[in-house]
Each structure stands twice: as C-alpha cells, then as structure tokens.
Specification:
The protein is of the alpha+beta class. It is built from 4 helices and 3 strands, in the order H-E-H-H-E-E-H.
Amino acid sequence: MSEVADRIKEMITKIKPTKLYPATQVARMFGVAPVTLRRWIKEGIITAKKVPSGSRYMYYVSGYTILDWLGVALEAEESEENGTEGEE
C-alpha cells in the first residue's frame, strides 16, 4: 500500500463524524490553502456550515463531509495503485 493511502487511512481513524471542524483545520488536513477551501465551499464543491463569529463568519465542515472526501481519495489512490484508474 502506498504512503498516501496509509496517510488517508490514518486521517480517517482520527475524524469524528459528528464533530464540526474549522475550515482552516480542514484545509491543513487536505494540504490546501484556507482560501482554496473557502473557494471550494462557495463553489459548492464541499459543503460547510457558516457560523457567526464576532464581526465575521467562520466556516465549519462536518466530520461526515470530511470522511466522504477521504473515502473518495482513498478509492482513487487504491485504483491508481491497482492500475484500474477510470475503469468500471
């Protein structure tokens, strides 16, 4: 199994499905800039809850959403390893 697949599996074990994670933390998990994650949220690529925080709003992503994304990433990684990328 690849190092990437191992890392994804490790992340899956640490995510609590019912917890809401701050968007900045989720961005770090996925290795992207917070601005990228916010763009994905605004484009509807990933769902998040917008919560008032003082004079600003904060985005929170549910553990279920993160687990969905990690599951897709793991499937893609394993397909690539097995040479079945894009096959049905």
